[in-house]
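Quick start: load a record and inspect it. Here is Sigma-54-dependent Fis family transcriptional regulator:
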Amino acid sequence: MEKGTILIVDDNKGVLASLELLLETEFSEIKTAGNPNQIISILNTSPIDVIILDMNFSAGINNGNEGLYWLKRIREIAPTLPVVMLTAYGDVELAVKALKNEATDFLLKPWDNQTLVHKIKEAFGNGKKNKVPSPILGHKPQMIVGQSPAMQQLMKMVIKVARTDANILITGENGTGKEMLAREIHHLSPRRKQEMVTVNMGAISESLFESELFGHERGAFTDAYESRPGKFEAASGSTLFMDEIGNLPLGMQAKLLTALQNRNITRIGSNKVIPVDIRLISATNLNIQERIESGRFREDLLYRLNTIHLELPPLRERGDDILLFIDYFIRRYANKYGRKDIFLHENALEKLRSYHWPGNIRELQHSIEKAIILCEGNVIRPKDIFVKQTWSPQLSTVVPNLEEVERQAIETAIRQNDGNLTATAEQLGISRQTLYNKIKRFKL
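Running the structure step on this input writes:
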């Protein structure tokens, strides 16, 4: 029987020790936190099934407002997670207030052991009904899932299909985390013991396509000084992730289709047919159906790619999931740049939450990193948050053509990243090779 993981949050070490001892046989893992500031980080990195949360943390204060504040924060990112409130100063009015703020239950100190265990187990049982299950014991997610309905529904589908070898097509805007979702699927699959192999289809030139995917023998062409397996061979027994599949030219699409149909490949310079056993996951930010209708993508290839189609929602449609990403990126870059104890001013948080994030998670990540670097002291303020300024036709009587808009966008991005082309490509959501091609095309 699944026992789950419980998080106990209380500033009293004696209470933490007592509850840990009392509940150690009832749960698979018990996590404790003496400071409520640890809650969001723990929820972001560990699967928690139940929280026991004290209502008072500061000496001399017993109105329960601290606990209610943290209950609200928990509910913003985990609406269905069972939270049982605990206080030594409980009364009926405070209990009702906690329950109105969506606490699961309420317990008083000193507690009755039997009653406490019963209520916690009951909360855990009810919480399981709303939780997305993980089929792997001890599985650590490869991505931040959050609690938005769209992502919860998506992950239910992911868990179902991950166990199979069905080919999957992931679609979504730039920066929504398509590769991270592919890694999550791989790590939930029977193929997880081997590394997932990735290839950016948009960065492969037509002349190198067969060599990159199918491999070559020594002397097969100029500079082929030694034999080398391609991505298909490298991924045999594992998962092959093809990013930017929608950018693949028609000629290459035919060769890819043949390999997928036959489930074997032949290296350049060889006649030996090599069988391959891969699970294929593809991704694109393009509308494949439109490309099929315009003759730029093969419909028969699409049928091979999208046995299962998963659509990743943009960040603006994920509600308060953005709080998880903000917290994660602040901790990540504060640690990277040695900026300890960084805090986010409430006005800066509001600026982050109100922006529409056309670049999605990747754009948020870059904005947080810049804010960590540029903020004065240990507080990130609104002035430290840099977001793109949207061009508005009302501000100009001249409407530039699409190529001019694209050229200006690339120029601006290069300036913003101080000439760093890798960072520029990431910001624009294109491959480095695609960026090189556009720089050459626009003579930048």
